[in-house]
From TrEMBL:
PROSITE patterns: AP_NUCLEASE_F1_4. Pfam families: Exo_endo_phos (PF03372). It comes from Lysobacter stagni. PANTHER family: EXODEOXYRIBONUCLEASE III. NCBIfam families: exoDNase_III, xth. Its EC number is 3.1.11.2. InterPro entries: AP_endonuc_1, Endo/exonu/phosph_ase_sf, Endo/exonuclease/phosphatase, ExoIII-like. The lineage of its organism: Bacteria, Pseudomonadati, Pseudomonadota, Gammaproteobacteria, Lysobacterales. Its cofactor is Mg(2+). This is Exodeoxyribonuclease III. Keywords: Hydrolase, Magnesium, Metal-binding. One of its GO terms (molecular function) is double-stranded DNA 3'-5' DNA exonuclease activity.
Length: 284
């Protein structure tokens, strides 16, 4: 089973690109962020025509998250990150799909920092830590996927020097991300790729894509019940190279059946469509 996360950066603007990616890659579960569309403007008919059921949490002009499931309807568990009833930003949604609990999140950017936007980011992450602890203790297989707007380490960015003041690299952001891992969540891409650099985001400016000057900010975290099923992970870089793309590329994991022993395999050759892929080591 393939589970992917993709910051689409405007679902209606890039609907054609989304549908083409779904057709070619056919993930079973998709987490989308930054829909930039109110509830009524979500393209549910087009998504259904591609073979996917969907739930979504929209917001006019900004934010927005959705969970898609191939040949199935996701069963919504909750929307909106608990802990602040005054928070109206559409950044979080939970569902059950294909036997897995799926959490889709779009963590606040936090820039400029210091300031109220960075304070909101840190408070949001504190609330996420509480909710994440609930799912760690649930005993159910859970994936927490999305645009975290956190570069976990300096090895997750092409060159940290020019980004030192950015909210994505601040010690407070990184510390809270590490606290998630300390709870028992597995960073699937880092586990699969090891020390190899892998990027999921390339800024539109200063030819970041052309120079492969990327950042890794899209993450899929697995709890202890799901981690042993990790078989592979990758980034569909070809999507970022299409005309008028999102500044993110779809990032995904492949899961095997429960209780199956993971096997090591040599990295496959990179396909012509520029998908970066690695097989998983044992996650246990």
């Amino acid at each position: 089973m393939k589970i992917a996360t993709f910051n689409i950066n405007g679902i209606n603007t890039r609907l054609g690109a989304l549908l083409e990616w779904l057709r070619r890659e056919q993930p079973e579960v998709v987490c989308l962020q930054e829909l930039k569309a109110p509830e009524e403007a979500f393209p549910v008919e087009a998504i259904a025509g591609a073979g996917y059921g969907a739930i979504w949490h929209g917001q006019k002009s900004w934010n927005g998250v959705a969970i898609l499931a191939r040949d199935a309807d996701p069963v919504e568990i909750g929307r909106g990150l608990p802990g602040d009833p005054d928070d109206t930003q559409s950044r979080y949604i939970e569902a059950a799909a294909h036997g897995v609990i799926v959490i889709c999140l779009y963590l606040p950017n936090g820039n400029p920092q210091p300031g109220p936007k960075f304070d909101y980011k840190l408070a949001w992450m504190d609330r996420l830590l509480v909710r994440a602890r609930h799912w760690i203790d649930s005993g159910q297989p859970v994936v927490m996927a999305g645009d975290y707007n956190v570069v976990p380490t300096d090895e997750d960015i092409y060159n940290p020097k020019s980004w030192r003041k950015d909210a994505l690299l601040q010690p407070e952001s990184r510390e809270r991300y590490q606290q998630l891992l300390d709870q028992g969540w597995l960073d699937a891409l880092r586990h699969v790729f090891g020390e190899e650099r892998v990027y999921t985001f390339w800024d539109y400016f200063r030819q970041h894509w052309e120079r492969d000057a990327g950042l890794r900010i899209d993450h899929l975290l697995l709890n202890a019940e799901l981690a042993p099923r990790l078989r592979a992970a990758g980034v569909d870089r070809w999507v970022r190279g299409e005309p008028k793309p999102s500044d993110h590329a779809p990032t995904w994991i492949e899961l095997g059946p429960a209780k199956r022993v993971a096997r090591k395999a040599a990295p496959p050759k990179t396909p012509a469509r520029q998908t970066t892929t690695r097989r998983a080591r044992s996650a246990t």
